[in-house]
Predict the structure.
Amino acid sequence: MSRHALRSTGFSLLAALTFAAQAAAIQVQVNDGAGRPLPDAVVYLESRDAAAAAKPARDVAIAQVDKQFSPRVTIVSVGTPVDLTNRDKVRHHVYSFSAAKTFELKLYTGKPGSPVVFDRPGIAVLGCNIHDQMSAWVVVVETPYYAKTAANGQALIDGVPPGTYRLRTWHAALPVGAAAADQPIAVAAANAALVVPLAEVGK
Ligand SMILES: [Cu+2]
C-alpha cells in the first residue's frame, strides 16, 4: 500500500482490509520420529518484528484437577499472568525452579491470591510438592504467533504477516533442557502448510 493511501482517510478502511488479507495462516503438522502425529507440541514463529508485536495474553489458566495439571502444556507470550486455581479438595503446593520462572504457591485450595506472571522467555516446568506425578510445562515466547498441536498433531498459527521467521517446535518428550527445534521459514501473503518431524521423540 502507498503512503498516499495511508494518509488519505477515504482509503483508510480499504488499507486496513488489504493489510488483514495479507496475513497468512500457517498450518503445522508435528510428527514424532516414527511419523506419528504429536499432540501437545508447541509451535511458534520468531522474528524481530514478532518480538516487538508480542503482548501479554489474558485469561490463561492451568487448573489442578484430579491431581493433575490441566492443561499439561501451555504456551504464552512474555508477561502473561496465569491463573493456577486448585479445583481439587486436597491441597496442592505448586512450584517451579526453572530459570524461566521460579515461584512457589504453598499449600492451598481454590484460587491463589494472585496469578503467576511468566515474565521471561523460556520453559518453566511446574510440579507439586505433595503429588510427585503432577507435572506441567509453560513455554514462554516472545511472539504473538504461536499454537499448540491438537490430537492429530496439527496446529494453526493465524494472522501472520509476511516476512522471514524462525519456526520453533518444542515437545515435552524432547530431552530435558533441549532447545526447541529451529528452522527458517519465509511467510508469504498466502496460507501455507508444512510438516515438522521431531526425530528425537518417540523413536
Ligand atoms: Cu498436588
Summary: The chain has two domains: 24-51+148-203, 55-141. The radius of gyration is 19 Å. Helices lie at 3-7, 12-22, 48-53. The pocket of copper (II) ion is lined by residues 67, 92, 128, 130-131, 134 (CB under 6 Å).
